[in-house]
Amino acid sequence: MNNIVRVKVPASTANLGPGFDSLGMALTLYSYIEMQQAEETCIALHGENLDGIPTDKSNLIYKVAQSVFEEAGVDIPELSISMYSEVPLTRGLGSSASAIIGALVAANELIGSPLTKDRLFTLATQIEKHPDNVGASLFGGFVATAWDGNNAHYVKIDPPKELEILVVIPHFQLSTTKAREALPKSLSLQDAVYNISRSSLLVGAVAAGRYDLLAAAMRDRLHQPYRAELVPGMAEILEQAPLRGALGASLSGAGPTVLALVHREETRKHELENYMLQTMNSHGLEADTLWLQPDHNGVQIMTKKHTDSFLDMVKGEVKA
Ligand SMILES: Nc1ncnc2c1ncn2[C@@H]1O[C@H](COP(=O)(O)OP(=O)(O)O)[C@@H](O)[C@H]1O
Ligand SMILES: N[C@@H](CCOP(=O)(O)O)C(=O)O
Question: Is 317 contained in some domain?
Fold first, then answer.
């Protein structure tokens, strides 16, 4: 058994417009988890993004780790867990998925990796209920996924290197559960065809580096129109961003974060950022902006000898 395991997990953006519960992309915004066996369970959460998360055995990381031990037939009831996260909670950047992936991979590594990555993907999807965010955090890059309730399938595509992602993160939380309650129970055939065709086009456009198709390919009639009321300013940004320098724009996951895909060499980046922020502000929302890139690796086990403390390791990573 390994003594101390540390993992670095990327955040993710799901759906990218039409690919509801199916498409995802990993982002260069990370959570760090350290896990080891202990005499008594102790969970230390660092940084303001984890405020309010329980530190007893009801913690998601602890519970997910126990599901790995159970599946592997190993008994490790007490754990010492430390976590630091750059990912804001409940904003549509896959914080729950990154916590689940971090916990699964750390726990599996702690007991010598008996479970395959594909098995971890299935377990993660069973817990998260949709494979888009967990697939991106696990495998990195851009993923097209499918889930039939028992098996999770995926294809990973390396997103073009010139792609940058501008996210505008409002200062309010919107739980995925609440954002799913806004969705209709059924769709017209016309809207289903609208989404299937754009989602297919989006996968092809990312694979082929066809930036010219992204704006059309990221349009959606399945969830964004129904979630628009929950995110003031979103509908306007989605219409306008492609006219102001974005390659395409979408709600990130279930929201409230809104994102734009932008070419690295786009000259109107600054104006686009101001436009998206001011539009949110004009609808009464305070927000932060961040420029990110696709993460190409997915979750990583930090193999360097752990001679420094967890927090010193995090400081070094976040600075770098
Ligand atoms: N590190 C963590 N430890 C425990 N629970 C977490 C952690 N990160 C996220 N969660 C849980 O996931 C919830 C957010 O998930 P969700 O509503 O799907 O939003 P998102 O995944 O977009 O941030 C949090 O309210 C919390 O319950
Ligand atoms: N496909 C899901 C994605 C939820 O992503 P999150 O980052 O908001 O948790 C949905 O749209 O409900």
Answer: no
Q: What is the CATH number of the domain that holds 244?
A: 3.30.70.890
**Domain enclosing residue 84, as ranges:** 5-158+295-306
CA nearest ligand 2 atom 11, residue: 254
Model ipTM over 0.85: yes
16-36: pLDDT as tens digits: 999 999 999 999 999 999 999
| Phi/psi of residue 43, nearest 5 degrees | -120, 115
| CA angle 59–61–62, rounded 5-degree value | 65
H-run or E-run covering 207? helix 189-208
CB atoms < 10 A from the CB of 190, how many?
Answer: 8
Q: How far apart are CA 201 and CA 292, in angstroms?
A: 23
Q: Is the CB of 175 under 6 A from ligand 1?
A: yes
Of the pLDDT bands very low, low, confident and very high (cuts 50, 70, 90), residue 305 is confident
Cβ 13 under 6 angstroms from ligand 2: no
Give me the residues paired with residue 294 across strands. Answer: 27
